[in-house]
Amino acid sequence: MKIFRLLALMMALLLTVAACGSDDAGSDRAEDDVDDGGAIEQSEDDDTESNGAVSSSREKLEIFSWWTGAGEEDGLIALIELFQEQHPDIAVENAAVAGGAGTNAKAVLASRMQGNDPPATFQVHGGAELNESWVAADKMEPLNDLFEEQGWMDKFPQELIDMVSMGGDIYSVPVNIHRSNVLWYNIHVFEEHGLEPPTTFDEFFEVADALLDAGVTPLALGDREPWAATHLFETVLLGVLGPEQYEQLWTQELSFNDDQVVEAVEIFKRMLGYINSDHSSRNWQDASQLVANGEAAMNVMGDWAKGYFVNDLSLEVNGDFGYVATPGTEGMFMVVTDTFGLPKGVDNTDDVKKFLSVLGSVEGQDAFNVLKGSIPARVDADVSKYDEYGVDTINDFQEAELAASLAHGSAASEGYLTRVNQEMNIFVTQQEVQNFIDAIEAAAGDL
Ligand code: BGC
């Protein structure tokens, strides 16, 4: 039943997105096929049959994601190029739908899955987003054979294999591990004001007050898409609760009414007193840009922000910007893993498996992750290819206590996340702590 409610919710969201006509709405599916150089030309129109119905038979290898534009698409393009070098005979269609954290792409995907028109392969977070949305609805093919054949069983950390498995079968291939509990800061601004990056909430507020006195916006936020506020909030939750109790929220062993959750919401509310006033008109890239140009000093974002800082803004890791774990989360690692699987009902199954094989190879992971800002999901990737941030993060991942992200689909069902994002939108404006707590507790039935 949850699945049907989720699909209905996604459809409603999709209609809203279409109605809003936002400039990055789901309608602007990337048209830029990456099939130059020897690939077989396909008819552009062969998806639509004479009766207007959309056929699920697509000869092009359609790769569906939300990696478009600044800081997002470089890794994907590199991966597709590598794939095309190895398989010049397979035409690829980059079917990316703009919108951070899959804001629009997930709605488009839900409507296509419901209409039995799946893309050949699609980006999906390991954990609940994969398992509860698609595997439980019997929409995915198991990939155990591919994992065996490629010798991958000991090449991915067991925690990641668990995140992409259900009922003993494996359903997708992780391409990366992003860390989401990262506080980025502008080194020049910190040096100019004699500040150290904060590691606790107390330090955060001390530093934030000093920055405010100096006329610098302490914390950048871009919550035009509400997930960015949920993202900040979940790092506060982790910082207050620690990994074990944070995990208990998703298993319903700990209630959202718990005093510590209330404390986390209070801290989060206090943080909102230090953000840029135009936060609701910015997306995550725009907010990161404030930190890059020194208008703001810090932001909390996953390490896709590093891809943006380095690839798009040519900033230097540990020269222009630095990074620490978000307050209270040192030694903890909020995991976001992007994965790709094989939906049921796809015609070009062999081509999809070839793509997944490249994506899961050492070469594929290193081509992608060096640019994406994430670390390789494989344990045997070539560490020498990564910058200082990448090497630190690869080491941290091995030592840290892991936690699953809510904002990025792993910790809880898509239905619950959608409710939290809606309530978050209201909270950021009204800042009524008890109302927010009541609302996210009331939604817990969707967990
Ligand atoms: C994805 C990242 C992506 C980020 C911003 C996350 O949900 O896992 O790959 O860069 O959203 O769009």
From TrEMBL:
Biased composition (Acidic residues): 30-49
GO cellular component assignments: cell envelope
Protein name: Probable sugar-binding periplasmic protein
Function summary: Part of a binding-protein-dependent transport system for a sugar.
Signal sequence region: 1-21
Similarity annotation: Belongs to the bacterial solute-binding protein 1 family.
Keywords: Signal, Transport
InterPro entries registered for this protein in UniProt: Bact_solute-bd_prot1, SBP
PROSITE patterns the UniProt entry points to: PROKAR_LIPOPROTEIN (PS51257)
Major subcellular location class: other
Subcellular location: Cell envelope
Gene3D superfamilies: Periplasmic binding protein-like II (3.40.190.10)
Region (Disordered): 23-56
